[in-house]
Amino acid sequence: MLETKETGQTAVLKITDPKFKYEISKIPGAEKIMLCFQCGTCTSDCPVARFSGVYRPRHIIRMTQLGIKERVLRSEALWLCASCFTCTDRCPQGVKVADVIRVLKNLAVKEGYIPPIFKEFASSILGTGYAYRIPELRIKKREELGLPPLPKGNPQSLAKLAERIELEKLLEAKRE
Amino acid sequence: MAEGELKYQIFLGCAIPYRVSAYEISTRKVMAKLGVKLEEMPEFNCCGLPMDPISHEMMLLLATRNLCIAEEKNMSIMALCPGCAGTLNKANTMLKNDKRLREEINEHLKVDGLEFKGTIEVRHLIQVLDDDVGLEKIRNAVKKPLKGLKVAEHNGCHALRPKEYMGFDDPEDPKVLKALIEATGAECLDYMDEAQCCGAPTAGINDKIPLQLSREKLTRIRDAGAQALITICPFCHMMFDTNQMRIERMLNEKFGIPTLHYPQLLGLALGLGPEELALDELRVKPTEQLRQIGI
């Protein structure tokens, strides 16, 4: 068990999975997580971290290395990454920080943590082929604007692909 | 490739048909003027980017499905949205280089009667303009040089980063969009941290951070003395144009910086009219700035 001081209160960071870092480092994109030596380049160069009190990529990586799995996967901060890839391009150790964060988000989803906006994206893509439900009026207006018709999406075909990887099950995962 | 033979399948993605048609309209007009043929993709879907945080595998399936559809015509893709360009490019590169991954994804795609072969390339609009059309041809096509207009550029992230997949321009100090802007006769000014993110991808999670990021950029752009901002991404454009008045209200500041899609700027220099380029769709109108240069 690790103890840390945060805002004057003692928070207990529980190591819930000492093997977490090994599990993570086997997932494509996160292979180099163990090479992080906490220099902080990712965080000092992160545009979001400058305006957020909670988003610190360096902390996310360290907590992952330390096996504080529950806390990492439940963290809302994880979802603040703008995926601008500045951290990935600048990491002196070659850790693909943004990819590690994506790997952690994917795991969070498996455990039932998924922000509503991403649920909406998924439902719209599976329902229409597009990430947004484009209003019929907007599609009709294309002709007026001299634009070619927007092809109809193919939800049937996407449903088949989603079924192959059991995406529905993933989207319905419940928090324990 | 001989002149006049440039042909691409245009990939629109979702955000552009949803709410940024000016970008599409101006791109089509400009490409026609430059002799680049654009063919429609008969059936496409979301590039996959919004699914990456949920399931990396589903992102790859969505992206690869698009690539397979494009491969049927054996013609490369030109994407307008850097997010789409980045995602399709990443999937294309990953599958071309990793045989095991390719087999795995192809096994899934079989249910849809598709197979990834790796026969085409994916490019963003500005790559096509810079590499394939070329600056010289653009300069020669300019009919009305935008002399006297001072602008700043914002590339957005995914056209540049991660450099491992994009391998285009200098992600720390991008120069391609600048050169394309200067080809129109306008002056492109330098400002601090030009390659910094606008914050748009966090908008669905936190509504303040992206506005603060965009405000910081707008402040730097204004202080550099730019009369307008030029973008190449529908999401960045929404942050700087659609949300500019919101930023002004929230932070009690005044910017008044019109934000044009690059093909709108180029179109003006090629002699196209403001209506043809859908300039009226912009929230922050460039009327005064254009009047000053006689448009």
Report on this model:
The complex is a heterodimer of chains A (176) and B (295). Chain A is mainly alpha-helical and 176 residues long. Helices cover 49% and strands 6% of the residues of chain A. Chain A folds into 2 domains: 109 residues, Alpha-helical ferredoxin (Fumarate Reductase Iron-sulfur Protein, Chain B, domain 2); 56 residues, no CATH class. In chain A, helix 8 packs across helix 10. The longest helix of chain A is centred in the middle third of the chain and has 14 residues. With 295 residues, chain B is an alpha/beta fold. Chain B folds into 2 domains: 119 residues, Up-down Bundle (Glutathione S-transferase Yfyf (Class Pi), Chain A, domain 2); 151 residues, Rossmann fold, CATH 3.40.50. In chain B, helix 6 packs across helix 7.
CATH superfamily of the largest domain in chain A: Alpha-helical ferredoxin
Strand content of chain B: 5-15%
CATH C-level of the largest domain in chain B: Alpha Beta
Total number of strands of chain B: 8
Biggest sheet of chain A: strands side by side, in what order?
Answer: 1-2
User: Helical element count of chain A?
Assistant: 11
CATH architecture of the largest domain in chain B: 3-Layer(aba) Sandwich
pLDDT averaged over residues of chain A: 93
Q: Strand sequence of the main sheet of chain B, in spatial order?
A: 2-1-3-4
The helicity of chain A comes to: 40-55%
State the major sheet of chain B. 4 strands, parallel
Report the sheet with the most strands of chain A, covering strand number, pairing sense and barrel closure: 2 strands, antiparallel
Number of strands of chain A: 2
The N- to C-terminal Cα distance of chain B equals: 35 Å
Q: Beta-sheet strand percentage of chain A?
A: 5-15%
Number of helices of chain B: 14
Q: Which series of helices and strands of chain B comes N to C?
A: EHHEHEHHEHHEHHEHEHHEHH
Q: Give the overall pLDDT of chain B as a whole number.
A: 96
What's the structural domain tally of chain A? 2
